[in-house]
């Protein structure tokens, strides 16, 4: 069986060409699956009967199965999705007045092992397929519509999800081809039709892949900086030892030249007395001087057995003020979905304890 969620428009065209069908069938099919969100080939009523019959024989539309569906007090909603082999991933919906954002996972686990990240602590399991990545968006839109949520843009015929952030589990640029194919479906007018500014990819800093992304699919870029110098960043974000700050910032500059947004968002997790001192804010200002950028300060979200603590509000605000006084836009990310462990860096899913050969759930602790 092939899963039609695995195909972007180019791949569908190739599939139809191979089968002697007209290439425009690709557009029709994409519209049925991603605009009308159907889950059966049979429902594609404007495809000629013989085409449908042939397709239905070996093609399906299948997103990862939902293991758990939880809604937080603030309206954030998290789906735990089974991707087989005792792996689960998470997608989080964050409603706001003017948008609906979905935070999407790109890998089961992550190999990069950042010191403050619960996903990193699980280790790497595998890359998600295109169907598993785009399936998160397909599923969220379908489920939210079925729940009857309302928003002005939904009344105008748009999907509930208006913005996507690749900030769930995994390093998206380490699963480059599948992530790019999935993002192409997000941007495709026959599918979700999101503008490049409404799709944000967050990376810990895989320099060569940042350049490839600029050429392949220049969506909005967020870079997890977290430290103002190599000595500290080496310990927090180990990939820095391979791609140090000067190379990373040069790649950011190259990116903004081609990107739809003329700035990069630097994410900075606020770790108490590790990276949150005023002199570190000043060093940060000096470091990024040449890069058009904004800052997003993320209060650290704790999880069990972590050595880190969340910076106090006073220290975060003082840090923010130094960035703002230097002329930068610097926001403090609001923690959403705390009561369902849906905040940044808390996505852990369900992992197999390889030594004991049973399923364990890593339970993130309640945030401070
Ligand atoms: N792998 C990518 C994207 C996923 S993580 C990346 O690292 O950028 C999305 C953001 O959450 C990143 O900025 C990451 O550094 C941050 N993050 C990870 N663990 C966190 C935690 N425990 N608390 C707050 N933010 C965290
Ligand atoms: Fe991977 Fe990002 Fe977590 Fe680092 S912060 S371990 S790159 S998911």
Helix content: 25-40%
Radius of gyration: 21 Å
- What is the chain-wise order of helices and strands? EHHHEEEEEEHEHHEHEHEHHEHEHEEE
Ligand species = S-adenosyl-L-homocysteine, iron/sulfur cluster
Strand order of the largest sheet: 3-4-5-6-9-10-11-12-13-14
Let me know the average pLDDT. 91
Percent strand equals 15-25%
- The structural class is alpha/beta
Question: Number of helical segments?
Answer: 12
Spans with pLDDT under 50 lasting ≥5 residues?
Answer: 350-368
Tell me what you see in this structure:
Helices cover 34% and strands 21% of the residues. The chain is α/β, with parallel strands linked by helices and 368 residues long. Helix 1 (9-18) crosses helix 2 (24-35), helix 5 (130-146) packs parallel to helix 7 (176-187) and helix 8 packs parallel to helix 10. The radius of gyration is 21 Å and the shape is globular. It starts with a strand and ends in a 7-residue tail after the last strand. 47% of the residues are buried. Bound molecules: S-adenosyl-L-homocysteine and iron/sulfur cluster. The site of S-adenosyl-L-homocysteine has 17 residues, from strand 10 and strand 12.
């Amino acid at each position: 069986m092939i899963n039609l969620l695995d195909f972007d428009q180019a791949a569908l065209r190739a599939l139809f060409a191979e089968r002697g069908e007209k290439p425009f069938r690709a557009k029709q099919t994409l519209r049925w699956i991603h605009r009308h969100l159907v889950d059966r080939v049979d429902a594609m009523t404007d495809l000629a009967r013989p085409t449908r019959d042939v397709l239905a024989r070996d093609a399906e539309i299948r997103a990862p199965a939902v293991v758990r569906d939880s809604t937080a007090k603030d309206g954030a909603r998290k789906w735990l999705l089974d991707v087989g082999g005792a792996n689960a991933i998470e997608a989080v919906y964050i409603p706001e007045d003017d948008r609906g954002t979905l935070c999407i996972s790109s890998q089961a686990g992550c190999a990069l092992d950042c010191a403050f990240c619960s996903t990193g602590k699980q280790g790497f399991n595998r890359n998600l397929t295109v169907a598993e990545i785009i399936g998160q968006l397909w599923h969220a839109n379908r489920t939210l519509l079925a729940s009857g949520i309302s928003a002005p843009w939904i009344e105008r015929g748009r999907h509930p999800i208006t913005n996507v952030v690749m900030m769930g589990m995994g390093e998206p640029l380490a699963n480059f081809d599948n992530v790019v194919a999935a993002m192409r479906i997000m941007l495709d007018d026959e599918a979700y039709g999101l503008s490049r500014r409404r799709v944000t990819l967050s990376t810990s800093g895989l320099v060569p892949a940042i350049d490839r992304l600029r050429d392949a699919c220049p969506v909005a870029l967020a870079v997890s900086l977290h430290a103002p110098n190599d000595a500290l960043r080496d310990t927090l974000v180990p990939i820095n030892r391979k791609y140090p700050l000067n190379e990373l910032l040069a790649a950011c500059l190259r990116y903004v030249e081609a990107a739809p947004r003329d700035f990069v968002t630097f994410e900075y997790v606020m770790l108490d007395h590790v990276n949150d001192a005023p002199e570190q804010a000043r060093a940060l200002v000096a470091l990024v001087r040449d890069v058009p950028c904004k800052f997003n300060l993320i209060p650290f979200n704790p999880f069990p057995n972590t050595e880190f603590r969340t910076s106090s509000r006073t220290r975060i605000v003082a840090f923010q003020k130094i960035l703002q006084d230097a002329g930068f836009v610097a926001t403090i990310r609001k923690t959403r979905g705390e009561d369902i462990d849906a905040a940044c860096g808390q996505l852990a899913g369900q992992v197999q304890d390889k030594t004991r050969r049973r399923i364990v759930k890593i339970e993130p602790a309640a945030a401070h």
